[in-house]
Amino acid sequence: MRLIRLDLKAFGPFTDKSLEFTTKAPGLHLIFGANEAGKSSSLRALKALLYGFPQQTPDNFLHNYDQLLVAGCLRSSSGHELSFQRRKKRLGDILDAAGNPLDASALAPFLRGLEATIFASLYGIDHDALVRGGEEILAQKGEVGQALFAAGAGISSVSEVVLQLEKEAADLFKATGQLPAINVAVKKFRELQKDMKVAGLSVKDWKEHRKALEDAEATRTKLELERDQKSTELHRLERLRQAIPELAALQSRRESLLGLGEAVLLDPDFAERYQKVSRDMRETGQRLQSDRERLAKLAERRQVISINKELLLEAGRVDDFHQRLGEYRKGQKDRPERNGMRISLRTEAGRLLQQVRPDLPLEKVEELRPALAKKRTVQALTTHYAAIQQQLAVAEKQGRAAEKEYQKAEAGLAATAAPVETGSLLQAIGMARKVGDIDGQLAKSRGDLELQKKECLAELRRLGLWTGELTALMQLALPLSETVQKFEKSYGDVSDAGRELEKARKNYEKDLHQVLAEIRKIEYTGLVPTEEELALTREKRQQGWRLLRRQWLDGEDIEEKSREYAVEQPLAEAYEGYVGQADTIADRLRREADRVAGAAALRARMEALGEALVENNHEKEALLLSAKEQAMAWNRVWQPSCIVPLSPREMIGWLAGIDKLRFKGADLLTKQEQLGRDLQRREGLKGALKKELMAIGEIAPGGHELGPVMITAEAVLEKMASRKKELEKCKERREKAAKDMQQAAEDLQTAREALAGWREQWRNALVDLGQKVEVTPLEAGDLLETLQGCFAKLKEAEDLQKRIDGIDRDAAELSREVKALLVKV
Fold it and tell me: How does pLDDT run across 55-76, given as a tens digit for each residue?
C-alpha cells in the first residue's frame, strides 16, 4: 500500500489543506515544520483516515465533532487506487469521493489485515513512543533478542512479561512452600498415596480373598439353583393341592349337567328384550285405561250439549270478533287520554309560536316553515361569525404584540455594545484545549510520582538486605543473574549430594539393623558352629594326640604340659573330649549347612555395611568442607555491595524484586523529566492566554495553574460570543417584529371585509322570520330551535288526531259486522 494524497479538510488546525506524495520513482518524503505546526496532527489524521476517529480526540478545537473530515488516496501493489473520505460518525463514516457511503471492506486489500496498534507501533511512531521504546530496550538488561522482539512486535516490555510469568509460577509452585496450588496438590497426592497403601492389599492377600470370593459365589450359585428347583416343585404341588376341591366340584357339576338333558340356548340380549317388552305392555295397558275413562267422560258431556249449526259454521268469524273486541276495548279506554294529549300539544305549540311571532295565530304557523328550512344556513353563518370575531381579535392582538416586540428590539440594539475581535484568543484557547486537563494531569503525575516513590521505598524496605536511596540503588553493583543461578545450581548439587548421602546412610543403618536382627534371630535358635571353631577344636585334638604319643611311645614326662593342656582332667580324657567335640562340630556343620552359610553371609554383609558407613562419613566430611568453601565464595561475590546474602535461591527472588525496583526507578526518573517538560509547556500556554486577555482589556487570575486562566479566557470568549449573538438576535427580533406588524394589519383588514359580507348574508337568512329588530346569532339559533319545537308539537298532535279517528272507525266497523252476524244466526 502507498499513500498518494492526504486531504486535511477539517481536522485540528487545518482547513482544506492537502499533502501530495506523488513521485515518478520511489523515495522518502519528509514533512518539516516548527513546533505546533501540525505534524502530529497530520499523523493522527492519517490514522483516523485508515482506522476511523477515536471516541475522544483533541483535534476538535477548531472544528466540531460533526464537522471533522479527512480524505485521501491509496494505491495498492497491483496499481489499483482508492479515493475516499471519512467523517467522525459511529456508522457510515466512510464515503467515496462523491460523498456516497462506502463499505469498510473496500480498505481490506490495502491494509491487508494490519491492525491499528501494529500500524501505530511500526509506521505511526512519534517522539514519545521512540523515547519509551529506548527505555524499554535499556530495561532489558542486555537481552537483545527480547528487546528486538518487543520493538518489532509493538508489545509491552518482554522483561515485564517474563517477571510477571515468574511471579505467576512462584504463586503456583515453590520448592519449600506449602500454600501454592501445586504444593497443595502434591501434598494431597502424597496423602492419598499413603491412604491407598493403608487401604490396599498385598497380591497374596488379594488372591486369597479373590479365591474365597469366587468359591463363595460358586456355592451361592449352586444354592440358588437348588432353591429355584425346590421352589418350582413346591409351587406345582401347591397348585395341585388347591385344585383338588375345584376338580371335585367340576366333576359333580358335569354329572348334574348330564342329568338335565338337552337345553335351549337363548340369545345374549334375551333378558334385555324381555324386560323392554314387559315395560311396554304395562305402559300400553295404563294408557288404554286412561283413554277409556276420558272417552266415557266425553260421551257424558256430549249427551247434555245442544248445537247451533249456523253458529258453528261461523266459528272463525266469532274468534276474529273475540280478538277485535280486545282491541276495541283498549281503543275506547285510550281515546280520552289521547284526545287530551292532542289538545295539550296544540296548546304548547301555540305558546312556542308566541315566543317567535306573538302577532301570528297558530293556524298561520305554516307561513314560517320556509324560515325553518334555512336553519343550516343560519348555523353555518353563526359558526362563520365566531371565526370572523376570533380572526379580528387575533389580528388586533398580534398587531399590539408585534409593535411591543419592535420597541423591545430597538431598545436591545441601543443597549448592546459592539463585540471585540477574539480570533487570536480563540486560537490560544484551542492550543490550550489541545493539551486537555493539564493541571489535573500534572497533579495526578505528582501524586503518582510520590505514591510510586513511597511504594518503591516500601518495597525496598520489605526486601531488606540493603538500605539507601533509589538513585544509589540504580548504581548499586550486584552480581549477574547467571552468577547467582550458577551458585544456586552449585548449592543445589551440594544439597542434593548431602540428601543422597543422608539417604544412603539411613539405608545402610536400616540394613545394618536388619542384619543384626537376623543374626540375633539365628543366635536365639542356637549357636551356629563355624569353620574357625572346628579348626580350633581340631588343633586342640591334634595337640593332645602329640602329647599322648610323646608319653606313650617316647616315654617322656609331660606332666607340666598336660596341666597346661587340661587342668582338671587327665590328658587321655581331655583328648577324648576334644575328639568328640570336633566330631560334634563337624556333624553340626554338615547338618546346619544353610544356617552356617546364612550366618556367614550376614556377618559378611555386616562388615560391608560397616565399611560403607565409614565411607559415607568420609564423603559427608568432604561435602561439608566443599559447602564451607562455597559459602565463602558466595559471600565474596556480594562483598562489593556490602550485602550479607541469603541462600542463592532466596537471592534470585531478591534480585528479581531489585530488578523490578530498578525498572520502576528508571520509570520514575522518566516521569519526573516528563513532568518538568509538561510544567514548561503549561507555563507557555498560560503566558499566551494572559497576553491575549490583556490585549482585549481583561485581567487574568494569578497562580501556577492553567485552569483558572483557561476558565477566564473561555468566559471572556463566551461573553464576546454571547454579546455578538445577542446583537444578531436583536436585529432578527426587530426584522421579525416589523414583518409581524405588517402581517397583522393585513389580517385585520381581511377580517373586517369578511365581517361586512357576513352581515349581508345574515339579513337575507333571517328575512322569513319577520323580525323587526336585528337578531344576534345566538338569538337566531334559539328562535329556530323554538320554531322547530312548535312544528314538532303540531306534528305529534296531528298524529294523535289520526289515531283517534282510526279508533272511531274500527269501533263502527266492528259494531256493523257483529250486528250482521247476529241477524244471520
Answer: 888 888 788 888 889 999 988 8
Angle between helices 375-415 and 777-824 (to 10 degrees): 160
Contacts of 549 (CB under 8 A, 6+ apart): none
DSSP letter string, 304-353: H----HHHHHTHHHHHHHHHHHHHHHHHHHHHHHHHHHHHHHHHHHHHHH
Residue 573 CA to residue 544 CA, distance in Å, equals 10
Per-residue pLDDT at 155: 47
Which cell numbers in the block locate residue 654?
531478591
Nearest in space to 693 (alpha carbons), one of 717, 670, 726: 717
> The C-alpha cell of 456 is what?
518503591
- The answer to whether 194 and 158 have CB atoms below 8 angstroms apart is no
Q: In percent, how much of the chain has pLDDT > 70?
A: 83
Residue 65 DSSP SS3 = helix
> With 80 as the cut, is the pLDDT of residue 217 above it?
yes
**CA distance linking residue 59 with residue 68, whole number of Å:** 8
Neighbours of 49 (CB within 10 A): 23
pLDDT, residue 154, reads: 46
Q: Which three cell numbers stand for residue 53?
A: 476517529
**For residue range 143-160, what is the model confidence (pLDDT) as tens digits?**
444 444 454 444 444 556
CA distance 343 to 193: 124
Q: In the structure grid, which three cell numbers stand for residue 742, read together? A: 405588517
Q: In what order do the strands lie in the sheet with 2-11?
A: 14-20, 2-11, 69-75, 81-87, 94-96
Q: At a CB cut-off of 8 Å and minimum separation 6, what does 169 contact?
A: none
pLDDT of residue 758: 75
Beta carbons of 38 and 13 less than 8 angstroms apart? yes
Contact 95, 101 (CB under 8 A): yes
In the block, cell 467515496 appears at 96
Residue 371: other Cβ atoms inside 10 A: 22
Quick one: cell of 709?
486562566
Supply the DSSP symbol for 58.
S
Residues 6+ apart with CB under 8 A from 658: 463, 473, 476, 478
Q: Residue 524: its pLDDT value, please?
A: 59
Alpha-carbon gap, residue 768 to 760, rounded angstroms: 15
According to the model, what pLDDT value does residue 678 have? 78
How many other C-beta atoms can be found within 10 angstroms of the C-beta atom of residue 345?
Answer: 20
All three cell numbers of 590, joined, read 554338615
The answer to whether the beta carbons of residues 46 and 119 sit under 8 Å apart is no
Exposure on the CB side of residue 631, measured as CA atoms within 13 A: 10
Checking DSSP bridges between strand 2-11 and strand 69-75, what pairing results, if any? antiparallel
The 10s digit of each residue's pLDDT in 319-358 is 887 787 887 787 777 778 878 887 887 788 777 766 666 6
Number of neighbours of residue 6 by Cβ within 10 angstroms: 21
Using a 10 angstrom Cβ sphere, with 0-12 exposed, 13-18 middle and 19 or more buried, the burial of residue 80 is exposed
Residues ≥6 apart with Cβ < 8 Å to 561: 547
Q: What is the DSSP letter of 64?
A: -
Residue 95: all three cell numbers together: 464515503
Q: Could you give the 3-state DSSP secondary structure of residue 521? A: helix
- Across the range 256-274, mean pLDDT stands at 77
Torsion region of 372: left, alpha or beta (phi above 0 gives left; psi -120 to 50 gives alpha): alpha
Neighbour tally for 731: CB within 10 Å: 14
Closest CA to 698 of 727, 719, 726: 719
Residues 6+ apart with CB under 8 A from 499: none
* The three cell numbers locating residue 669: 526518573
Beta carbons of 356 and 369 less than 8 angstroms apart: no
Residue 193, pLDDT above cutoff 60: yes
Q: What residue type is assigned to position 802 of the chain?
A: K
